[in-house]
Design goal:
Layout: H1 6-21, E1 26-28, H2 29-42, H3 51-60, E2 65-67, E3 79-81, H4 87-94, E4 99-101, H5 109-113, H6 126-131, E5 135-137
Parallel strand pairs: 4-5
Antiparallel strand pairs: 1-3, 2-3
Helix pairs in contact: 2-3
Length: 138
């Protein structure tokens, strides 16, 4: 971690504040860039600091952490988190309303885990569900 430029330190504090006001803890780059653009409009960014380089800086400094995904679908699904998150939050960030749980669970598992709108499927149906656009987390 390199020492922050004084203006960068202010921006990092501001992004931390914005993230605590955000209702989600798992975000895509598409959701993060507008936050950074908003900060750029409110505060003077150093000219050499682009939105993408500021995002890299947030990752390098440990403010955001990339979530490693082993996806069975083809799109770029990078996700970042800034605090504790559940599998449910991650699944919703990938494709709201279209996910399943790839493990043996009892019928009461969704209630205990605080998951609503979960769908169960037999393992032999996974290829079919993936073709329909479902996301399965393992």
């Amino acid at each position: 971690m390199r020492p922050a430029h004084p203006r960068e330190a202010i921006l990092i504090d501001q992004i931390r504040e914005k993230l605590t006001q955000f209702s989600k803890r798992v975000l895509s780059q598409t959701e993060l860039i507008p936050l950074i653009v908003e900060l750029r409009a409110e505060h003077a960014f150093p000219r050499s600091l682009s939105e993408r380089s500021f995002l890299r800086r947030l990752i390098e400094d440990g403010i955001l952490k990339e979530i490693p995904l082993s996806a069975t679908y083809s799109f770029d699904a990078k996700r970042y988190h800034w605090g504790p998150f559940s599998d449910h939050e991650l699944a919703l960030s990938l494709k709201p309303g279209a996910y399943g749980i790839a493990k043996d669970v009892d019928l009461d598992y969704p209630r205990r885990a605080g998951i609503q709108g979960v769908s169960f499927a037999r393992e032999e149906r996974f290829p079919q569900l993936l073709m329909q656009g479902w996301c399965l987390l393992r």
